[in-house]
């Protein structure tokens, strides 16, 4: 039901309004009258329109409008009073009234027009308030000159930890850490655009913790005052993630640049995407040019021309390693190079990541080890073949002499010692032979 609430203590004024409302199309059962603030008992259904006098027996004109607004926050309010002061009407509208009518100047046409306009103004205002109040992003309104907070939505209350009443007693400087207040004031006072991206700032919560926000500002008007609507988007997690990533990237770049291994990447046209310091030293060694003197043609031309087949193989999606030899001042330098395809989100190869490690010293060490092994094998062969032959001869002669000197005690003792030592030596030579076989 389209309910109309009339708050009027004067009987004649009530009857006049009742008749005018009926002429505009309302029925008697749609009209609900209260003669004082104390009598008001909202039914739970939102009235279509509130028509209220300001002078009531239990409320002063200054308080009546505020009380009615609190009792009917979602209904349009038209103030009807005997005060014809235009300034009073303007002030009431600034405070939230949808219209202001003077007793004695009202007819049913004016009343009908005022009601329709009030309903539409309230609808627009309610839509605006709904967008503002229920927006999940913190939004607040500042005085354009003093930067006092004039309004704040629920998201601001939740994010900053202050009550709405506390926020409405604060200044924009109060929600910033002390070290940013001067910078904020210097920035804000020179802004004249109707809307602007204020960039990244630090804001402070009620518990003293600080978080990062990205601020957008729009010029507006609030209760007749020039104001600025501020949208503060929390970017604290994103900013910390970016800082951590930058820190990791810095550390990774330091690690990459502090290695002698050559690291670089190329796109599908073999243009250099990234490269470490060792790469530029290596290229300078190849070309005789400094990094500043090198040109794109050096990379697309002779420098990597010999590697084209390897690049082509990698661009086809093959990850592989190869060994490459360059000669500098008559000395061979051997490198092990790995080629690893770089793919996009669809799995297409868009470039190559390359890693070159100098294995010259490793190769030299392996050669030395192989040479040492050959020498050890030769020594083992000498021991197992040449020396063993002599040991076998000694054993044979010892047996012959021992049999002829069977009755000679001292001589027999000496010969038994020679035979025993020769057998032990033969056992050692046999062990060497077996170890040699294991090496092979």
Structure description:
This protein is an alpha/beta fold and 440 residues long. It has 4 domains: 4-133, Response regulator (Rossmann fold); 139-238, Beta-Lactamase (2-Layer Sandwich), CATH 3.30.450; 260-358, PAS domain (Beta-Lactamase), CATH 3.30.450; 363-439. Helices cover 46% and strands 24% of the residues. It is built from 13 helices and 15 strands. The strands form 3 sheets. A 5-stranded parallel sheet has the order 2-1-3-4-5, with helices on both faces. Strands 7-6-10-9-8 form a 5-stranded antiparallel sheet, with helices on both faces. A 5-stranded antiparallel sheet has the order 12-11-15-14-13, with helices on both faces. Helix 12 (360-404) runs antiparallel to helix 13. The longest helix is centred in the C-terminal third of the chain and has 45 residues, at 360-404. It is rod-shaped. The protein starts with a strand and ends with a helix. The model has no long low-confidence stretch (mean pLDDT 86).
In DSSP terms (H or I, runs of 4 or more residues), the helix count works out at 13
User: Which consecutive residue ranges, at least 5 long each, have pLDDT under 50?
Assistant: none
SS-derived structural category: alpha/beta
Q: Any idea what the shape is?
A: rod-shaped
Q: Under CATH, the topology of the largest domain is which?
A: Rossmann fold
- On the 0-100 scale, what is the average pLDDT? 86
Question: Characteristics of this structure?
Answer:
440 residues; alpha/beta; Rossmann fold; Beta-Lactamase; 4 domains; five-stranded parallel β-sheet; five-stranded antiparallel β-sheet; 13 helices
């Amino acid at each position: 039901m389209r309910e109309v609430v009339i708050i009027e203590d004067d009987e004649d004024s009530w009857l006049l309004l009742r008749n005018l409302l009926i002429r505009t199309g309302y029925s008697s059962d749609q009209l609900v009258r209260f003669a004082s603030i104390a009598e008001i008992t909202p039914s739970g259904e939102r009235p279509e329109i509130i028509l209220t006098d300001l002078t009531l027996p239990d409320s002063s004109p200054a308080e009546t409008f505020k009380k009615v607004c609190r009792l009917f926050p979602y209904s349009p309010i038209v103030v009807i009073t005997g005060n014809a002061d235009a300034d009073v009407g303007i002030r009431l509208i600034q405070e939230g009234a949808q219209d202001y009518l003077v007793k004695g100047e009202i007819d049913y046409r004016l009343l009908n027009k005022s009601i329709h306009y009030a309903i539409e103004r309230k609808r627009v205002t309610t839509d605006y308030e709904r967008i503002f109040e229920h927006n999940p992003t913190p939004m607040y309104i500042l005085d354009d000159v003093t930067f006092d907070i004039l309004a704040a939505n629920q998201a601001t209350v939740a994010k900053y930890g202050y009550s709405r009443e506390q926020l409405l007693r604060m200044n924009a400087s109060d929600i910033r850490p002390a070290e940013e207040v001067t910078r904020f004031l210097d920035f804000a006072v020179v802004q004249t655009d109707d809307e602007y991206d204020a960039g990244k700032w630090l804001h402070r919560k009620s518990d003293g913790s600080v978080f990062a926000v990205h601020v957008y500002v729009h010029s507006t008007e609030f209760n007749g005052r020039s104001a600025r609507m501020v949208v503060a988007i929390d970017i604290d997690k994103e900013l910390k993630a970016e800082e951590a990533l930058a820190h990791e990237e810095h550390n990774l770049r330091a690690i990459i640049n502090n290695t002698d291994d050559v690291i670089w990447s190329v796109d599908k046209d073999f243009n250099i995407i990234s490269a470490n310091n060792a790469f530029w030293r290596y290229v300078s060694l190849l070309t005789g040019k400094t990094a500043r003197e090198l040109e794109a043609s050096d990379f697309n031309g002779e420098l990597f021309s010999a590697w084209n087949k390897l690049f082509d193989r990698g661009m086809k999606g093959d990850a592989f390693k190869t060994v490459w030899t360059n000669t500098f001042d008559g000395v061979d330098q051997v490198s092990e190079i790995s080629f690893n395809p770089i793919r996009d989100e669809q799995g297409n190869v868009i470039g190559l990541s390359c890693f070159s490690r100098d294995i010259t010293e490793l190769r030299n060490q392996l050669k030395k080890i192989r040479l040492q092994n050959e020498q050890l094998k030769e020594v083992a062969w000498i021991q197992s073949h040449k020396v063993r032959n002599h040991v076998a001869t000694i054993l044979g002669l010892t047996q012959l002499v021992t049999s002829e000197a069977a009755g000679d005690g001292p001589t027999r003792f000496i010969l038994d010692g020679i035979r025993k030592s020769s057998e032990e030596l033969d056992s050692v030579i046999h062990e060497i032979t077996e170890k040699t076989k294991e090496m092979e």
